[in-house]
Specification:
Blueprint (H helix, E strand, L loop, with lengths): L8 H7 L4 H4 L12 H15 L5 E5 L5 H9 L4 E6 L2 H13 L3 E7 L12 E7 L8 H14 E14 L3 H18 L2 H14 L3 E2 H11 L3 E8 L2 E7 L1
Parallel strand pairs: 1-2, 1-4, 2-3, 4-5, 5-6
Antiparallel strand pairs: 5-8, 7-8
Helix pairs in contact: 3-4, 6-9, 7-8
């Protein structure tokens, strides 16, 4: 994957306009994300065990609502705040959640890098395959700081995302594994399409950087829930 000039936030917003139906499928919505259905299942089960009495959830980059739906099915008392760059995604997520009788407290259309979050409101914050659109290390720091402040004491932040590796050889090996995975899903053209998309749209960071930045934000318990190829899932407790 070579380096290209990254697309703007507005270009990113337009890019997702035609993706609503694909992201509405809990099993196939993110086939380019390795183990996406497994991470979805891990999040809903772990959250239900760790925070059975949670009252409020913020879903950052909620897309069509898959994670909010699955978590709310386990914890139907939740009041949900949905945040996404795309209005059609938010509308679809709202439609699906309301149809199943869940409570949406607020809908926010914005870029998370610009979002102002309330202090100590949420028991749970989820960001599934969305924060890799942040562009700079300072963006990551600011967003993690805001997420930390938005959580009540004892609240938890659940993140899954694309990552990169510190070691160049390891990075090349894991990208090669990912390339084989994508080719196996469809074909060589699909693999190239996904890699070109990542070059244009995404700015992943390393696990050590993410953990260090979470610690600096104030999180005192950080666990790696899952790691496979160039994807990982973390949970951090305030």
């Amino acid at each position: 994957m070579s380096e290209h000039k990254k697309i703007t936030v507005e270009e990113l917003r337009r890019q997702f306009v035609g993706e609503v139906d694909r992201f509405s499928n809990e099993q196939t919505g993110q086939t380019s994300s390795v183990d996406a259905p497994l991470i979805l299942a891990m999040f809903e089960t772990s959250i239900a065990k760790m925070a059975p009495n949670a009252k409020r959830l913020l879903d950052i980059g909620c897309g069509a609502g898959n994670f909010s739906l699955r978590i709310a099915r386990k914890l139907p008392q939740l009041k949900l705040t949905l945040l996404d760059l795309s209005r059609p995604m938010l509308q679809k997520a709202e439609e699906r959640l309301v149809t199943e009788g869940f409570t949406i407290e607020e809908i926010i259309q914005t870029d998370i890098a610009q979002a102002e979050l309330p202090n100590e409101k949420f028991d749970l914050v989820v960001a599934a395959a969305s924060l890799h659109h942040l562009r700079t290390k300072n963006d990551w720091k600011n967003v993690f700081d805001r997420i930390y402040r938005s959580l009540i004491p004892g609240g938890s932040f659940w993140m899954s995302d694309l990552i990169r590796h510190e070691n160049e050889t390891m990075e090349a090996l894991q990208k090669e594994r990912y390339a084989d995975y994508l080719t196996g899903l469809r074909d060589q053209a699909y693999q190239q399409q996904v890699f070109e998309y990542i070059d244009r749209s995404d700015t992943p960071e390393t696990l050590p950087f993410l953990i260090h930045t979470l610690e600096n934000a104030g999180f005192h318990q950080i666990d790696i829930m899952h790691k496979n190829m160039v994807f990982a899932a973390l949970v951090a407790v305030k």
